[in-house]
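Example 690.
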Amino acid sequence: MNFLSPLLSIQSFAAIISFIAAMLVVVVVIFLVITSSTEEDKYSVKHKVYKLRSRYFFALVICIVAGLFISLRLLPYAKFQSEPDETVTVVAMQWAWKIAPGVTDKNPVDFTGGSEITVPANKHIRFVVTSSDVNHDFAIYNSKGLLVAQTQAMPEYHNALEYIFPEKGDYHILCLEYCGLAHSIMSGIIHVN
Amino acid sequence: MLQLNSIDIKKQRKFVLVWGITFLIVFPLLITLGLLMRLNQGEEIQLGMDRFYTLMTLHGLGMAGVLYSMAFAALWYLIGTRHTKLNLGLGYFVYFVVLLGVIGLAYATLIGKFGAGWYLLYPLPFKGTNWPAWSTGLSIVSLILLGVAWIIGILHVVYALAKEYGGLTNLLGWQYLGKKNVQRELPPIVMITTISLVPGLIAYLAGAVFLFMNLFQHFEPALSFDALLLKNLAFFFGHTLVNITLYCCIGWVYALLPEFTGREWKTNKVLVYSWNATFVFILFAYFHHLYMDFAQPLALQYAGQFASYLSAIPATAITMFGVITQLYHSKIKWGIIPLTFLIGVAGWAIGGFSAVVDSTIAINKVLHNTLWVPAHFHTYMLTGVVLFIFGFLFYLSHTKEEQEKDKTAKIGFWLFVIGAHCFIATFYTGGMNSIPRRYADYKGIPINSTHTTGALLAQIAAICIGLLLIGLFIMYGSIFNKLRKGKNIPMVPSTNT
Ligand code: HEM
Ligand SMILES: [Cu+2]
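Predicted structure in complex with copper (II) ion:
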């Protein structure tokens, strides 16, 4: 689930902090170039920088621990999922999606399904995703074109992806793992009502 | 300190120039492939899907291979002229085998239409392909050639250094951790070379296993391997290759920057601990490529995020603060060489941060395989590794005074840097807007805004690439101009370390 929504998408969050970090780097570079025009004894420089460094080190360790602590509770994996309200089977093939409600014990090659499906809003939907040939990636985009959830579709493996659709309307499925020639036109639709 | 006569130094210099000139020829060709891809994504030209993926594959494999090879050659030169004797016959053998591999790949892609991508995910090269089976076979054999050449090169350098410094543990700096006084100082470049190349060796061996499995599949179609296992092997190989290319470059930054600041940069306990930690992080970080494989054991997913986060500690607290200690109040003259190093470290920092962001599982689930991924690795390759390599090439071609005065080089450099960062910004913006990576074009995306944003960004990128190419050729002018005069050969190796 998006830990920031609806205020800010995860993507915007990532972009903003990366941008701030990049600007910080630019500031440090400019600072170094400006200050390099004067001379100071290298031992006293070392002393000063090392003092700063140990502060930086502790700040960084705290950030890392906090970052791990917060983010590692937001994992998309099975262990972190709840009981689904509905289950949908997804089989990827070169170059189409086969989607149908329910679980199946059919061989992925023989499995039949369409490229569209209808699911209810605000319910736990579990997508059981696999592939009948090469690697693909089942990615769900909302109507605004934002990627909201994904899992790889790998032959011989079943990946369970859980998602609660917050709004009614059409979501789109794109393939996000390069799977050969027609990879970029391999799409499907999820109708949410 | 190694004592070489000037004839031997000249020979080593000629050797590294052979690599350097090969690099300078191949690099803009591969950039042109990138330009064509962006033009196709911007719907300015029509390559067709098959040609797009062929060019993408050659671009990715070519860039990764050529940059690693050049980084290795630069280290070879600095080590071979300063720290231990290296065998040039073997060096040229490595060169020709690499060349053979590159020609094989170019043939398999451009003529044979092989297009499985630079990290080829089993069983893609064997299913639903639009290229003949021989080009898959040729690609695999060519990659094996590259791997063999690199393994031989690494073994020679590490073996020669181990003999010189009395064993592998001394190369890792462990003698600094005991109570005893250190008998012989270990130059940081030697330790960093070891810590880049030994994980590289392990990864190339894994790569060899991967490639041979693919080769068996090629000859025996009835075989079937585990796709998850092969994906692990592919990324252990691919990620580590790209990762250590950067660390190799950091090796010569440690060695060369002090020549311009006049401040020594020596090995000590902290440096040893931090680089040995890096050794471990290099080996485990690749798991972050498999976060979206929910079937991967959970412990490995955690390992990926831990290793990726922790690698920031030695990189920033030790190396980047080391650069600050070098430069702060140093009264350095900003010639082109220290400039490339400073701006290169900045690119590494920026790309590194956005990589750490993406290595957060909770974030990766919406950035994985979007343009964010090429964004971050182009940042530390194009505005990191490539700048370090140019720093090294300027070091080969310019004297200390020349590199201070060379205005042309600086103009070219800044055009290149600005063009490159703007080009990369189109990738980041694409990632932020969920534009998928590895899409020949965005016409098939049923969401209109995603299609148009993707195409627009690609058009802007093409302009930035033009700018960067102009800067690149201006730098070429400066390097070839100085090389042709050739008066300053050989540069006296520094006695700093
Ligand atoms: C100006 C220089 C460069 C340009 C214009 C360029 C352009 C591109 C483009 C357009 C893509 C495809 C992105 C996508 O839609 O997935 C790409 C992918 C890639 N580039 Fe570059 N690139 C440049 C430099 C580099 C460098 C220096 C490296 C060094 C490693 C590199 C390595 C790669 C790799 C490994 C891929 C992925 C290929 C794949 O997905 O199979 N590129 N590049
Ligand atoms: Cu695909």
